[in-house]
Amino acid sequence: MNNKPSVVMVGLGYIGLPTAALIAQNKTYVHGVDINPKVVETINKGQIHIIEPELDNAVAEAVKEGYLKADIKPVEADTYLIVVPTPFKGKNEPDISFVEAATKSVLPLLKEGDLYIIESTSPIGTTEKMMNFIYTERPELKDKLFMAYCPERVLPGNVMYELVYNDRVIGGIDEKSTEKAMAFYKEFIQGDLHKTNARTAEMCKLVENSSRDVQIAFANELSLICDKADVNVWELINLANKHPRVNILQPGCGVGGHCIAVDPYFIVSDYPMESQIIGKAREINNYKSFWCAEKIQTAKLEFELKHGRKPSIALMGLAFKPDIDDLRESPAKYIVQKVLQNVNNEEYYIVEPNIEYHNVFKLTNYQTAVEKADIIVILVGHKEFKKLNLPVNKVVLDFCGINKY
Ligand SMILES: NC(=O)c1ccc[n+]([C@@H]2O[C@H](COP(=O)([O-])OP(=O)(O)OC[C@H]3O[C@@H](n4cnc5c(N)ncnc54)[C@H](O)[C@@H]3O)[C@@H](O)[C@H]2O)c1
């Protein structure tokens, strides 16, 4: 690219690459940076390394027109966006070393008036921490940079649309940083932009997912109580929701995915005494998966006692939620793994209609599995399963309420 990039995007994954492509589509020069040379090579060919509808065209066009270039190193620009992973280390503690490394890589390039934004999901105080780090290393820049945090809340599979139309929360380390970041996002986002400070913006992302986790935990807790109380939890929730101000979510076999099952720990690890409900919700949702695995174990033993032979078992679903192929942090996958630890000559049919091949599990077509199995376990409420006529003469463990009541 001969033109001077305005934006350096550090991290070209599920969030960074679509954002880079969107900014580039807006005819702004973007220098995308990724430490993975394969990612860089793929993007510079105008191709993509992740699955996301419409991203391929956006990247191909942006690269062809010269507005997007990938590299393993950053260059000088006006705006630096940090969109690298924030995984865990040790026991559910957030690891911000990727954010630190990304910040270090742009540190020598920063100059007066530049805008530095973190989008990575981060523990509260991370932007201030990075500000202190930058000003310690580059004291001549003190108070001469604009720094902000702006979390991402897109839904995988609909990223190119939601990036443009979702509302965004933007929090600077000071008022002028917030304003500068607002002006930057206004160029390519049509959703409303909401101003706050960096700490609130960081916490907002964590709270959105914790709120969902807590609400699902309530539904899962009800399912445990109802099992003991001999009450149909699906009917119960349906009836309770007839109240004009009650809206209970549906229980399932746990909570998964890389956001809801993960982000609450960012709060709990820093504020363990104060975040009692948030921490307990994580425990309940994790316990629900363990409980489901135990229920399967019990059903196996009961079948054997009754029929004098080992049962065959269909484990229906591996994804972390219905109708997707994503297995990250999936409770269904955890349950399947746990059940398979106790194999004792039973036949298992593992089903996931949204993926063709799995490197650990041998997959079976869902209709064949239902036909052959003695015990049918619904782990994910996929649309294919909802259409099934589940046989009344077989044991069915429906953890997702596809049959309701
Ligand atoms: N994927 C989502 O749906 C989603 C939604 C909201 C928020 N987030 C958050 O956004 C952040 C990024 O997530 P993602 O899904 O895009 O991650 P990802 O793993 O898909 O991509 C991150 C990329 O950053 C690169 N990288 C790591 N360290 C780097 C460094 N020092 N310099 C340059 N590149 C580096 C990796 O090679 C990788 O390609 C995370 O904090 C995540 O929690 C993700």
UniProtKB/TrEMBL annotation:
GO MF annotation terms: UDP-N-acetyl-D-mannosamine dehydrogenase activity
Pfam families in the record: UDPG_MGDP_dh (PF00984), UDPG_MGDP_dh_C (PF03720), UDPG_MGDP_dh_N (PF03721)
Gene3D superfamilies: NAD(P)-binding Rossmann-like Domain
Presence of the UniProt keyword Electron transport in the record: no
EC number: 1.1.1.336
Alphabetical list of InterPro entries matching this protein: 6-PGluconate_DH-like_C_sf, NAD(P)-bd_dom_sf, UDP-Glc/GDP-Man, UDP-Glc/GDP-Man_DH_C, UDP-Glc/GDP-Man_DH_C_sf, UDP-Glc/GDP-Man_DH_dimer, UDP-Glc/GDP-Man_DH_N, UDP_ManNAc/GlcNAc_DH
Keyword Transcription regulation: no
Every UDP-glucose/GDP-mannose dehydrogenase C-terminal domain range: 314-404
Source species, domain of life: Bacteria
Stated family: Belongs to the UDP-glucose/GDP-mannose dehydrogenase family.
NCBIfam families reported in the protein's UniProt record: NDP-sugDHase, PRK11064.1
Protein name according to UniProt: UDP-N-acetyl-D-mannosamine dehydrogenase
Organism: Pseudofulvibacter geojedonensis
Gene: wecC
